[in-house]
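[job 4471] stage=fold_predict status=RUNNING
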Amino acid sequence: MFTRYAKAEVKTVVAVTVLSAAAILFACLWQNWLWGLVLLVGPVGLGILGLQFFRDPDRQVPDGENRVVSPADGVVMDVKEGLEHPFVGRARRLGIFMSLFNVHVNRVPVGGEVAHTLYRPGEFLRANLEEASERNESYEVGLRTRWGKVLVRQVAGIVARRIVCEAKKGQNLKRGERYGMVKYGSRLEVWVEEGARFRWCVKVGDRTRAGETVIGEFLDEA
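[job 4471] inference complete, writing structure tokens
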């Protein structure tokens, strides 16, 4: 299953792969069919690699509305406390790095109403660098939840040059719901206001799956 956020890209990859493979096969059949098969590995392999960027598997969201799920597939890069953000206020933050080989579709970490959105143009530093959080192109979605304010930020990387975000102000989003993606490879962050009774359930180096891995939980089930 491929994501709806990349229909044009999927069609382009398929078309280029098929045409390239057909051209190579046609040319080589007149000379040496064995060489034709060998050369086919290139375009077919690149086509498969290109398509895997846009896969969108279903996920089983765990029970418990107070449990915050990962917004992205990837690896936890950092966990910070005592930060400041205009929407969240004093906050704690967790950063997840998405490599080129991860699923790139992003999911809502906790249910709530969209109260803040902000697109910010910027640089394209490597997404696994901490300074990328503030200097790179990004898109923020701030949620008002029953436990307080939570923000999720999509951050572009050195390869990722396009952020897709469907969330709109006033919209109610469900935990684990798809809401966008970053093409290709990037950083996702979750900010939680410090006033909430909350704890992280993952640490630096842990791998996450969007919509499935519980990265934190509010201690009041509300």
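[job 4471] summary: The chain has three helices and 14 strands.
[job 4471] exit 0
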